[in-house]
UniProtKB/TrEMBL annotation:
Keyword line: Membrane, Transmembrane, Transmembrane helix
Protein name as catalogued: MARVEL domain-containing protein
Species of origin: Lachnellula suecica
Record field: transmembrane: 21-40, 46-69, 76-95, 148-171
Length: 187
């Protein structure tokens, strides 16, 4: 069967490419925060570890499924199910990250305030309580980075919804093409 899904195929390709860009950005920013927390000999919070884990798994998944799609070997229903599971995981990440982060006013923070790691060192007790809004406020840059992670997680929710809808629609198209009567080649 020819790998032709028209606009749905293009939508799936665009969603996968945009998902990959968002995931790589989140991996870089979350890794930076974890490195700075570890630099001051603190344990990174479960939200950051979970975010990094989900994004790494998602990056591998997207790479594999897109290769399978190009080779016409992608199970669209399985892909829809996994996209839906990742959507749920990302909704949890976006919600948990957004609760404290949404209250921050990054513009009111100092541009040259200390590093995140220095600020984390000074608020050890608050970190034990998983108050991410405390350490993210170390500087304006750190605040914007954490808000970027939150925003990209929200964007990924939308993108995984779009790719799940696209794969279920491609599955239906593929199913309809298989059921269609074969055309007479001679006539």
């Amino acid at each position: 069967m020819q790998n032709y899904y028209g606009a749905l195929g293009h939508l799936f390709t665009a969603a996968r490419a945009t998902q990959m860009i968002c995931l790589i950005a989140i991996i870089g920013m979350a890794s930076n925060f974890i490195a700075e927390i570890i630099a001051v000999e603190q344990a990174p919070g479960s939200l950051l570890i979970g975010t990094l884990t989900i994004t790494c798994i998602s990056t591998l998944y997207i790479t594999i499924t897109y290769i399978l799609y190009l080779d016409n070997a992608l199970s669209f229903l399985l892909s829809t199910a996994i996209d839906s599971l990742l959507l749920i995981a990302l909704i949890v990440i976006a919600t948990k990250t957004g609760m404290p982060i949404s209250y921050l006013s990054c513009a009111s923070l100092s541009n040259s305030g200390g590093s995140t790691s220095a600020f984390v060192e000074s608020v050890k007790d608050n970190l034990q309580a998983s108050n991410y809004w405390v350490w993210v406020g170390a500087s304006r840059t750190s605040c914007y980075e954490m808000k970027a992670i939150w925003g990209l997680a929200i964007a990924l929710c939308i993108l995984f919804f779009v790719s799940a809808v696209a794969t279920v629609c491609m599955w239906r198209r593929e199913k309809a093409m298989m059921k269609a009567p074969a055309k007479d080649i001679e006539g």
